[in-house]
């Protein structure tokens, strides 16, 4: 028996960067994201295996993290036998493009369907959060919110039910290499920044402002808030008292300057960056080709894709 689920990545416009409970994966802030059509994970779970195993992009890989997460699902859903997990990632892994979000959302959905359980997305988001916090948002299409909560039940994601809008994300892939500082390690260091408390307060206010901007379909306001939130987050990494670091490369910095230049020319373009060097540029469908052209003009070897709003989890 087998079940297949497909979940798309999401890019947070208001970031999650820090944990107040690493066991339950409770974040220090609420977050808000856009699900992307271009990047996704398709996962099939098959029963009657000898032991839990993970086959990623046709290659058997280390199963430790998957096995630990499946054991959490066994605790929550009732014990079930070993599974073969076969995943195809249509997104670079561990490069700051939210591959873990789509991966753990797809895995959670596939396991629950294989067990013949009918579980609403809100409850699925709580389960997937234990594997990857951002996975909680990948059950929903378009815009989603993850509420930080104070315990397991109150930390969940839901759809924002936002209006349609011509938003686009130009994804500038600086590197597909596995990042040297994992997201979990990066968060552990960032919370030691003396500016972390100020960032939390600012992010909480921006979370409220972003909801209003999304519901008003104000892409310029969405982009402005997202860029400020992201750059403020990355500033924490540089000011960490324990092992300061940065995910930025020289190309990351160059892309940020190109985006700023586009704005000065009157184009709607704002940058957001997750835990990695890759830059996502928030713009409109009509402006996206101009953004791509400007990037290619300055960085002709850069790999660029344009993504739009994507759907929530689906099952085959």
From TrEMBL:
<dbReference type="InterPro" id="IPR029765">
    <property type="entry name" value="Mev_diP_decarb"/>
</dbReference>
<keyword id="KW-0444">Lipid biosynthesis</keyword>
<dbReference type="InterPro" id="IPR036554">
    <property type="entry name" value="GHMP_kinase_C_sf"/>
</dbReference>
<dbReference type="GO" id="GO:0004163">
    <property type="term" value="F:diphosphomevalonate decarboxylase activity"/>
</dbReference>
<keyword id="KW-0456">Lyase</keyword>
<feature type="domain" description="Mvd1 C-terminal">
    <location>
        <begin position="170"/>
        <end position="302"/>
    </location>
</feature>
<dbReference type="InterPro" id="IPR014721">
    <property type="entry name" value="Ribsml_uS5_D2-typ_fold_subgr"/>
</dbReference>
<keyword id="KW-0067">ATP-binding</keyword>
<dbReference type="InterPro" id="IPR053859">
    <property type="entry name" value="MVD-like_N"/>
</dbReference>
<keyword id="KW-0443">Lipid metabolism</keyword>
<dbReference type="Pfam" id="PF18376">
    <property type="entry name" value="MDD_C"/>
</dbReference>
<feature type="domain" description="Diphosphomevalonate decarboxylase-like N-terminal">
    <location>
        <begin position="7"/>
        <end position="157"/>
    </location>
</feature>
<dbReference type="Pfam" id="PF22700">
    <property type="entry name" value="MVD-like_N"/>
</dbReference>
<dbReference type="InterPro" id="IPR005935">
    <property type="entry name" value="Mev_decarb"/>
</dbReference>
<protein>
    <recommendedName>
        <fullName>diphosphomevalonate decarboxylase</fullName>
        <ecNumber>4.1.1.33</ecNumber>
    </recommendedName>
</protein>
<comment type="similarity">
    <text>Belongs to the diphosphomevalonate decarboxylase family.</text>
</comment>
<dbReference type="InterPro" id="IPR020568">
    <property type="entry name" value="Ribosomal_Su5_D2-typ_SF"/>
</dbReference>
<keyword id="KW-0547">Nucleotide-binding</keyword>
<dbReference type="InterPro" id="IPR041431">
    <property type="entry name" value="Mvd1_C"/>
</dbReference>
